[in-house]
């Protein structure tokens, strides 16, 4: 059995200035894409449009990161921890993700999360939208979110404030970013923060965003499969 070797503490070459630039670009590009929907005669309340909107915003962000990191002679994926080897096997990470998904489902009941229609639910009105959202949710979305949150944001916060506060702060931002689509239900925010905290721990222990991405994909897999089959999300996302 290979011994577990914890990753070395990270000292990113980027900092809060780059985080603020990325946040500003995220807000600006999101606003521009949202205002473009009526001009393009696209239904804003559809999963297809939501996937397109998120894809464009993420593409703008990664283009900005590529420019930022190129100024330091660094590549995006290497800098964000994607290429680092991990002491965890893909199978163990996938099992953890599925277990996390089931555990969050139980915690959702314990917290008595209200069963109300959310903006996320309104995106799922037709089969094409459900399929598009599900495919995005188990492919590009987990990869992009792990690179941005655990790869780009978390190293700055952990190196500045310490490991536990940094991971907690990252998971708080992660939860807050999902609140709007869940109708600002506080229980949903707490649940997503828990997921973000587990992902952050995996990222810190392994040093790899690929490892946390596998957990994230496995976590999303069961709810989105249920979504495609039944038309209803298993848990709030």
Give the structure's gist in a few sentences.
With 237 residues, this protein is an all-alpha fold.
Descriptors:
single chain; 237 residues; mainly alpha; 10 helices
How much β-strand is present in the residues?
A: under 5%
Helix share bin: over 70%
Q: Tally of extended strands?
A: 0
Question: How large, in whole angstroms, is the Cα Rg?
Answer: 18 Å
- The class by helix and strand makeup works out as mainly alpha
Taken from the alpha-carbon principal axes, the silhouette is globular
**Number of domain units:** 1
For the termini, the CA-CA separation is 36 Å
Order of helices and strands: HHHHHHHHHH
What average pLDDT do the residues reach? 87
Instruction: Count helical runs.
Output: 10
Write the layout of secondary structure elements.
Elements: H1 16-39, H2 47-70, H3 76-79, H4 90-110, H5 119-122, H6 127-137, H7 140-161, H8 163-177, H9 186-206, H10 209-230
Helix pairs in contact: 1-2, 2-6, 4-9, 4-10, 6-10, 7-8, 7-10, 8-9, 9-10
């Amino acid at each position: 059995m290979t011994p577990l070797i914890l990753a070395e503490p990270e000292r990113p070459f980027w900092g809060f200035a780059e985080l603020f630039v990325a946040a500003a670009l995220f807000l600006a590009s999101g606003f521009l894409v949202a205002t473009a929907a009526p001009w393009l005669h696209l239904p804003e309340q559809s999963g297809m449009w939501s996937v397109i909107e998120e894809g464009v915003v993420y593409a703008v962000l990664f283009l900005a990161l590529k420019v930022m990191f190129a100024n330091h002679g660094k590549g995006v994926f290497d800098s964000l921890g994607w290429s680092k080897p991990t002491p965890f096997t893909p199978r163990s990470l996938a099992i953890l993700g599925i277990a996390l998904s089931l555990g969050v489902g139980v915690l959702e009941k314990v917290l008595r999360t209200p069963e109300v229609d959310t903006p996320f639910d309104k995106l799922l009105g037709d089969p094409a939208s459900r399929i598009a959202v599900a495919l995005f949710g188990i492919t590009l979305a987990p990869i992009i979110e792990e690179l941005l949150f655990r790869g780009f944001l978390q190293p700055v916060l952990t190196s500045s404030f310490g490991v536990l506060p940094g991971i907690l702060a990252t998971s708080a931002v992660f939860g807050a970013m999902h609140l709007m689509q869940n109708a600002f239900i506080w229980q949903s925010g707490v649940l997503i923060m828990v997921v973000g905290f587990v992902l952050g721990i995996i990222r810190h222990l392994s040093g790899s965003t690929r490892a946390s991405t596998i957990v994230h994909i496995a976590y999303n897999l069961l709810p989105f499969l249920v979504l495609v089959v039944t038309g209803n999300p298993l848990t709030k996302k």
